[in-house]
Design goal:
This protein is of the alpha/beta class and about 250 residues long. It folds into two domains: about 180 residues, SGNH hydrolase (Rossmann fold); about 55 residues, no CATH class. The chain contains ten helices and eight strands.
Length: about 250
């Protein structure tokens, strides 16, 4: 059996003591994120195959999941694969450049880039230079200042989530999924967004159902210590893994 794991820095284990970059694969590894905890507790003989990437968007999560799971299907049967995904922020956009894929963040606008944010883990000057090199600074400025409303971001994100779930359903591959951020649970009068939200509800993606919906980050921020870069640490992942296991594995 193999467990495929994907997400952004919340899922890669950024700031965890066991986090490391695998120089052979170029991907991050961590044995204290919730997918690893579920593997260790419930599937100790399974291999963990993580492609979670710091700074990733849902575009990137979807792109990697479909590619790498297709590769795994060449070796494993569908019932030997478990996919674990923590979906990232709707406000991230991915672009293909001549140097690979690059994701813009809500802080990538001229106002935010004028001063280095506190708690940053990334070289601020280098990021600003990359945005300029890729001609994305002006575009990001428009997205995150002029068009910075949920309705302008959520539909793209939801389509990525839906087509990954349609792929998994088609191939009869089991999954455990959750939202990293509660912003996916938008209240709107847009019939197209509402219809898509209803369809996504059929896939039973986990989040904390409160008056203000909570993904992993909001839940952890209210009950656990965060790292200097504002990432939930080992204790939050362990408790979240227990919640997911109770929902998907032990009932």
């Amino acid at each position: 059996m193999i467990i495929y794991s994907d997400g952004c820095s919340l899922m890669s284990g950024n700031e965890h003591n066991s986090w490391a970059m695998n120089t052979d694969t170029g991907y991050e590894e961590c044995d204290s994120v919730w997918s690893a905890i579920i593997r260790n507790k419930y599937f100790p003989d399974a291999q963990l195959y993580s492609r979670a990437t710091t700074g990733s968007s849902n575009f990137g999560i979807a792109r990697r999941t479909l590619h790498y799971v297709c590769e795994l299907l060449k070796t494993y049967k569908a019932d030997e694969i478990l996919v674990c995904i923590m979906w990232s922020s709707i406000y991230r956009k991915e672009y293909s450049t001549d140097k690979g894929y690059f994701t813009t963040l809500p802080t990538d606008n001229k106002l935010s880039l004028a001063e280095e944010p506190s708690g940053t883990l990334m070289n601020h000057s280098a990021r600003k230079q990359l945005l300029q090199d890729y001609n994305l600074l002006e575009l990001a400025d428009v997205y995150y200042k002029t068009l910075n409303k949920q309705n302008n971001f959520i539909y793209d994100s939801m389509t990525q989530i839906e087509y990954v779930n349609l792929f998994l359903k088609t191939h009869k591959i089991k999954s455990i999924q959750c939202y990293g951020f509660g912003e996916h649970m938008i209240k709107t009068e847009d019939k197209f967004i509402n219809n898509t939200l209803q369809r996504l509800g059929n896939y039973d993606i986990f989040y904390i159902k409160k008056l203000q919906a909570q993904g992993f980050y909001e839940w952890a921020n209210g009950s656990h210590k965060l790292g200097p870069g504002l990432h939930p640490l080992e204790g939050a992942h362990e408790m979240w893994a227990n919640l997911l296991a109770k929902k998907y594995l032990t009932n």
